[in-house]
Design brief:
It is built from 3 helices and 6 strands, in the order E-H-E-E-H-E-E-H-E. Helix 2 (56-67) packs across helix 3. It has helices at 11-21, 56-67, 99-113, and strands at residues 2-8, 33-35, 42-50, 74-83, 87-95, 126-132. A hairpin with a 3-residue loop joins strand 4 (74-83) and strand 5.
Length: 133
């Protein structure tokens, strides 16, 4: 099973973003892009990849403990951009700045310390809208 830990997108934010990008979701407007489903939009903190289903509960417990004292983070949507022409995304700005990246680093370290197969990578807060075909 493909496993990751992420921050969800509030329903009212999702609805406004769906409306904002609705006109882009056609092959005529955005040729070569495969758009993601709005119900799947999230801000990834840690990616574990394909893991045995028996590790899901353990990963959840470790993740919950790692973020329990995180405090409140305020998120705001920024500009639309792309990562090297491969991923169309909306930038996400956090306040206090760097909190999401720090939370991701702490979470990834905790998962790795627990022996879980987490990929160690810097967290750049964003919502993926589409991927290049």
């Amino acid at each position: 099973m493909r496993l990751f830990v992420a921050l969800p997108v509030a329903e009212q934010v999702r609805a406004r973003l769906v409306d904002a990008v609705a006109s882009w979701r056609s092959e005529e407007v955005a040729p070569g892009w495969r758009f993601t489903r709005p119900e799947g939009w999230h801000v990834t903190l840690a990616f574990l990849g394909d893991v045995d289903e028996g590790l899901i509960e353990r990963a959840g417990t470790v993740a919950a403990e790692a973020v329990a004292q995180a405090g409140v983070v305020e998120l705001a949507l920024g500009d639309v951009d792309d990562f090297r022409g491969r991923v169309l995304h909306v930038q996400v700005h956090d306040r206090p700045q760097g909190m999401v990246a720090g939370l991701g680093a702490r979470l990834q370290a905790a998962l790795a310390a627990a022996g879980l197969p987490v990929q160690q990578r810097d967290v750049t807060p964003h919502l993926t809208l589409a991927r290049a075909r």
